[in-house]
Structure formats: structure tokens, C-alpha cells
Amino acid sequence: MIEVKRETKKVFQGKEGFATLSAILVMAALVGCVLFFYHTSIVERAFFSPSLEGNKMGDSPVRKVTIALPPDYYLNPTKHYPVVYYLAGFGANNETDINWIGKENVVFYLDSLMAQGLIQDLIIVCPDPKNSFGGSFYTNSLLTGNWEDYIVKDLVYFIDNHYRTIASKNGRAICGFSMGGYGALMLAMKYPNVFGIVASFNAPLDLEEMQKAIFPKIIAENPGGIRLSTRSEQIFTPPFLAMAAAFSPNLNNPPYFLDLPLEYPNPEPIPSVWKRWLEHDPANLAAEYVDNLRKLKIYIGVDKEDKFQITAAVENFHRVLVNLRIKHKFLLYPGGHEAGLRQFMNMLEFLSSSFENK
Description:
The protein has helices spanning 18-28, 30-33, 96-101, 103-115, 147-162, 179-190, 207-220, 237-247, 271-278, 282-285, 290-293, 311-323, 341-354, and strands at 3-6, 41-48, 62-69, 83-87, 123-127, 140-141, 145-146, 172-177, 197-201, 262-263, 266-269, 297-303, 329-333. It is of the alpha/beta class. It folds into 2 domains: 3-205 and 289-354, Rossmann fold (3-Layer(aba) Sandwich); 209-276, no CATH class.
């Protein structure tokens, strides 16, 4: 059964929504707030990732990770907790989204949600995906390193061996926004025995649909040839080059050591390179991984007017899942390419309610 919803209520997006959302949480949690004296603990750790050692970009294999521990973590030394792995978007690191919301606000929201029973006690893990191109797309690459293995092998191993987790697929969920939503879906689809639940929001889940809209914009913002620039009007080029570094690296092709899937000024894809990109396309791979997808609990969401042209891509991926008869939850929100609190809370509530260990 496919669950499809259209979100029509006002979305609590951005900082302007914090006051309204905070008021609602305060009113709902007045009784609960007096009952807890311990709070969510946010800690930052660093660990060595063998999968990133020796990458051609020279990015450090020692990576930071931010971890949110539930209020009762230190009170119950024998209790084990489910884990939500949150993957950040392009240009962000392990701290970006937390700092944007405010650490105190994050603690308050998580405390309130857990106190009210809207989500269960759980651990949230935010790794650093940022590399020299601005983002890894959580993909193994000859150029940038094995960022897929960094998450699935190194990070999961580190968390399970340093915190009291439910160390099984039933106790692990993975989610993300934009590039992170892409990574979450791809990793869950490929490793359903590691992650049993996945949530993806505003993510490029159909590269062919994205290509139609984005490639002409790449050409338009690069008069004279495609290159990285410090110009603020370059919106599409930086993530485009990061995707090429992940999907079509070429160590014999300086200066970026990658193959572009188009040749300036023609926005049409180059078949030989584009074929390599499609090997990393969730919509293209869904039929191949259909058995894995059927093992997962899946949530996908998107804004109706995404400024990165992602709306059509996510809607088409939703249709792919429908045609494959893969059960999932799909939400369509008003707005652009935002990681609003309402979207995150919906994802978190879905993930929490999907854990079998309650």
C-alpha cells in the first residue's frame, strides 16, 4: 500500500517559524517539562576513517561527528537506543544545521518531543560529509575517497562501539536533506541489512529528470566555459562539479580530474559519461534493487517549488516506487528548497514510529 499525502498547512520554515513552533511546544509540554531535569546532550567527537585514508584530494581521514544523546542516556547505563543517522546537504558539515537552528533550540525541541512521547528516546548522529568539492554525495570515488564506506562501515562501527546502540538494522535509520537525502536513499537501498528505515527530503532522486532542468542552467551561469568561481551567482555549478567528482572521476583529466557529462556550450549529455552518472541514479537503480527496497520503511518528501528543480525528480521517483509496488510514504510540501522544522519533525516522527524496538 502506498501512502501519499499533500501537506497544505503552513510550514514552520526557517528562523521566523521558531517562535510559533516554540509556543506550540511549550503549551503542549507544560506538564512534561516539569518532569524532566536532564536534557539532550550534544557532543562532538572525531574518529579515523580508514575508507578516506589516502584520498587523492588530500582531505583528512579524521572526521568530526556530532551526536545527540537522549535525556536519560546517562541515567540508564544498561539501556540501548535506536540511532538516526542524519546526512547533511551540500556545503554543510556535521555542525551546520545544528548551529543554524541553535544548539539550545535543538535541545529544547528534542527534549519536548521525547517528553511528550512524540518520538522515543533515541540517538541522532550527524557526520561531516564535506570535502574539497564542498560535498561527497556519500559516494565511493577514485578521486575524493570512499565516502559510502565512510558512512556504512566506519561511522556505524564507531557509533556502535562507543555508544549503547541497538546494533542492528531494526535499530538504525538514515535520513537526510538534499545531497544528504540522496545519500540516505542510496545507502539504505544498497545496504538494507545496515539501515532498516530511510527518510529523504528535497533530494535529487532522478538524475535524468534533473538533467533536463539543470544542464541548461549550468551553461547559462558559466559564460566562456564551465569552471568553479567565487561568484555568488554560481548556484548550480559547485554541486554539479561535486557530483562529477563523485560519479565520473578521471585522474588523467586536469584541472579538476573528472569528466563532465556535457560539453560546453551544448547542454545535451555526453552518452559515455552520462552512462556513468546513471550508475548512481536512484530512479534508474530502483528496479535492480527492488528486493532491497521492499525490506525498508521509506519516507520521501519534497517542496512543490524547489529552486534546484528537484520537485519533478522526487515526484518521478515516487512514481517509480508506485509502479514497483514498493510501500512508502510521500509528502508534498509548499515552499522552495528549505530544510524547515516541520519537515524535519515529520521525518523524525516517521523514523521513530518505524523502529521495532520501542
